[in-house]
Design brief:
single chain, alpha+beta, Uridine Diphospho-n-acetylenolpyruvylglucosamine Reductase, domain 2, Uridine Diphospho-n-acetylenolpyruvylglucosamine Reductase, domain 3, Vanillyl-alcohol Oxidase, Chain A, domain 3, 3 domains, eight-stranded antiparallel β-sheet, five-stranded antiparallel β-sheet, 13 helices, about 30% helix, binds flavin-adenine dinucleotide
C-alpha cells in the first residue's frame, strides 16, 4: 500500500487501480514507496517530501498508456507526465502535489525516423539529446541536433516547455513539425498534415487544415505527446564559434543596442548568449573557490574574478554558420559592430587555453554536441537552484533595467546574482538563477521568498516569465491577468472540455478543471 495517496482516492481504490496497472505494464514498471526516491526533487526551496508521488508508472507504448488512462478516469487518479524528467530548477520529475501518480514515459524512447533528405527526425518522448546525438553519429548522419545545455534532457520534454539550444535551430518548439497526442479520454490525435491518412508531409509542413493545435499541447496539461517531429540542421560547410568579452558592467547597454539589429537581420545567426562573469565562474567551480564570505559577491570582487579567469564582466558567445566565405564576411560584420565598445576583446577557436571548460562546452553546444559541463553550476552553493527567465524586448534600456532589478532582488535576499542575457530574434531572456543550500532552512526560505519577488516585480514592470518551477506556477499565471484573465479562462474551458475529471497533470501552469475539489496551492 502507498503511504501517500492522491487526494480523495481511498486506499482500496488506489490498490485496485495499481493491481490493474501492474497487469498492463508489468510489475517491474510500477514503483511505490522507497522505489520512488528517483522521483523526488532535492533541489527546490521546499523539502522533497512535499511532493512525494503515490506511485510511478512506466508504460512501454501508446496502447499501455491508453489503458492506464482508462483506469485513471475510473478512479480519478491524477497523472503527472514527463518524458526524461531532467527538468531540474523547475521541479524535475516530481509532481505538483503529493499523491499524484508520475507517468514516466522514458521507456517510450524510440527514434522512429531520421530523414536525411528533408532533415528531420520523428521521436518518442523518452528520447534524450545524448541518445539522438549518438544515433545520428552511429548512422553517419549529416544532421546536427540542437540541444539544451544539459545533454541529458529530452528532445520532446524540452520543446514542450518552450526550451532552447544554441545553434540557429535553437527554438525547439518553432523547429518542431507534427505531433501525435493522447487525450485524457484515450483518443489519439495527430496534428497538422499527420491528421490525413497516408500523409506524405507530416514532418515537412506544420499546418494541415483547420486550426493549428500543436501549441496548446505545450506547457500545459491538455494531452500526452507520444510522438513529435523535429527539423534538424544540416551540418554547414563552415562553423566559426566566437566570444566577445567586455570589461565593464555598464557596457551592457551598448552591447544590447548593437545586438538588436544584428539579431533582427540574422547577421548573428544563433542565440547571443551573454554570460555575466558570475555565470561563467559558476560553471568552473563552486562559490567557495571565489570567496570566504557568506555575503553576496561584490562588484569589485567580480572584477577580480574576471581578471583571474581572463574573461570580461560580460562574455557574449555566438557562432557563424554557412559557406566559408560567407562565414568570414558575416564574422567581419559582427566583429566590427561588437568591438566598437572600448575594451572589447574577441576570442576565436584556439585563443583560450585548451582546458578552458567554459569555451569548450559552448563551442560544443553551438554545433549541437550535447554535454553536461554547464550543470556544474548547480554546485555553486549546496545544490539548490531555481531558474527564472523574465523576458524583455531587445535593447539597452530594458536589459539594464532588468539586470539591475534582478541583481537588487537576489542580492537583497543574500544571494549572488548569477545571470546570463540571451538575445533572441526580437527579445532577450534575463536568465536569473537563485542558488542556495537546500539543507539550510533559512536559505531555502529566503530562496522561496526571493523567487516570488522576482516573478512579481518583473511582472509589475511588464516582463513576464517564460517558464516556472512547479512551486511558482500559480504566481506566474497570476501575472497573466489581462482582459479579465482571458487567457486563464480559455485554458479553463479547454481543460473542462478535454479533461473534466483532471487526469492529466492537474495544476500544470495553474490550469485545473472547474470540478477540481482538491488542493490548488503550490
Ligand atoms: C544548469 C542548467 C542549465 C539549463 N540549460 C537549459 C538550456 O540551455 N535550455 C533549456 O531549454 N533548458 C535548460 N535548462 C532547464 C532544463 O534542464 C531543460 O529544459 C531540460 O531539457 C528539461 O528536462 P527534460 O528535457 O527531461 O524534460 P521533462 O522533464 O521530460 O519534461 C518537462 C515537462 O514537459 C512536460 N512533458 C514532458 N513530456 C511530455 C509529454 N510527452 N507529454 C506531455 N507533457 C510532457 C511535463 O510537464 C514535464 O514536466 C537548464 C537547467 C539547468 C539546471
Amino acid at each position: 500500500m502507498a503511504t501517500t495517496l492522491p487526494e480523495g482516492v481511498s486506499s482500496s481504490d488506489f490498490d485496485q487501480a495499481i493491481r490493474e496497472i501492474r497487469k498492463i505494464v508489468g510489475d517491474e514498471w510500477v514503483f511505490l514507496d522507497s522505489e520512488l526516491s528517483p522521483y523526488l526533487d532535492h533541489m527546490s526551496a521546499v523539502p522533497p517530501e512535499y511532493r512525494t508521488p503515490s506511485a510511478a508508472l512506466a508504460p512501454a507504448n501508446v496502447e499501455e498508456t491508453q489503458a492506464i488512462l482508462k483506469i485513471a478516469n475510473r478512479f480519478s487518479l491524477p497523472l503527472w507526465t514527463y518524458g526524461n524528467g531532467k527538468n531540474w530548477a523547475y521541479g524535475g520529475p516530481t509532481p505538483l502535489h503529493a499523491g499524484y501518480l508520475v507517468l514516466d514515459l522514458k521507456r517510450m524512447n524510440r527514434i522512429l525516423e531520421v530523414n536525411e533528405d528533408s532533415g528531420y527526425v520523428l521521436v518518442e518522448p523518452g528520447v534524450s539529446y545524448f541518445q539522438l546525438y549518438q544515433h545520428l553519429q552511429d548512422i553517419g548522419s549529416n544532421l546536427w541536433i540542437d540541444c539544451a545545455a544539459p545533454g541529458w534532457g529530452g528532445v520532446i520534454g524540452n520543446a514542450l516547455e518552450h526550451g532552447a539550444g544554441y545553434t540557429p535551430y535553437a527554438d525547439h518548439y518553432v523547429m518542431s513539425c507534427g505531433m501525435e497526442v493522447l487525450l485524457a479520454d484515450g483518443e489519439l490525435v495527430r496534428t497538422g498534415m499527420g491528421a490525413m491518412p497516408g500523409s506524405k508531409a507530416w514532418q515537412q509542413f506544420k499546418y494541415g487544415y483547420g486550426p493549428t493545435l500543436d501549441g496548446m499541447f505545450t506547457q500545459g496539461n491538455f494531452g500526452i505527446v507520444t510522438k513529435m517531429g523535429f527539423w534538424m540542421m544540416p551540418k554547414p560547410p563552415a562553423y566559426k564559434p566566437f566570444m566577445f568579452s567586455y570589461e565593464k558592467e555598464s557596457d551592457l547597454h551598448a552591447i544590447m543596442e548593437i545586438l538588436r539589429p544584428l539579431k533582427m537581420n540574422m547577421v548573428w545567426q544563433n542565440g547571443a548568449v551573454g554570460e555575466h562573469i558570475g555565470y561563467s565562474a559558476s560553471v568552473l567551480g563552486p562559490r567557495s573557490d571565489y570567496t570566504d564570505s557568506s555575503a553576496p559577491i561584490t562588484d569589485a570582487r567580480w572584477q577580480e574574478i574576471a581578471h583571474d579567469l581572463n574573461l570580461g564582466i560580460w562574455n557574449f558567445y555566438g557562432a557563424c554558420y554557412g559557406l566559408p566565405a560567407n562565414v568570414e564576411m558575416q564574422f567581419g560584420a559582427l566583429k566590427g559592430a561588437m568591438t566598437s565598445i572600448p575594451g572589447a576583446r574577441v576570442w576565436l577557436e584556439g585563443d583560450r587555453e585548451p582546458d578552458d571548460a567554459g569555451w569548450n562546452y559552448r563551442a560544443k553546444l553551438m554545433q549541437g554536441i550535447p554535454n553536461m559541463t554547464e550543470f556544474n553550476l548547480v554546485n555553486w552553493d549546496g545544490g539548490g537552484h531555481l531558474n527564472f527567465s523574465p523576458m524583455g524586448p531587445m535593447g539597452g534600456d530594458h536589459a539594464v533595467k532588468l539586470y539591475n532589478m534582478m541583481k537588487e532582488i537576489t542580492n537583497g535576499y543574500g544571494f549572488d546574482h548569477l545571470t546570463e542575457m540571451v538575445g533572441t530574434f526580437r527579445g532577450f531572456i534575463a536568465l536569473t538563477m537563485v542558488m542556495f543550500d537546500p539543507r539550510d532552512e533559512d536559505a531555502a526560505k529566503r530562496a522561496d521568498a526571493c523567487s516570488v519577488d522576482i516573478i512579481q516585480k518583473a511582472a509589475a514592470a511588464g516582463y513576464g516569465e517564460l517558464k516556472a518551477n512547479l512551486r511558482y506556477m500559480n504566481t506566474v499565471m497570476g501575472s497573466y491577468t489581462g482582459n479579465d484573465s482571458g487567457l486563464h479562462k480559455v485554458n479553463q474551458k479547454i481543460k473542462d472540455a478535454l479533461d473534466p475529471v483532471g487526469i492529466l497533470s492537474p495544476g500544470k501552469s495553474d490550469i485545473w478543471p472547474s470540478s477540481w475539489k482538491h488542493s490548488r496551492a503550490n
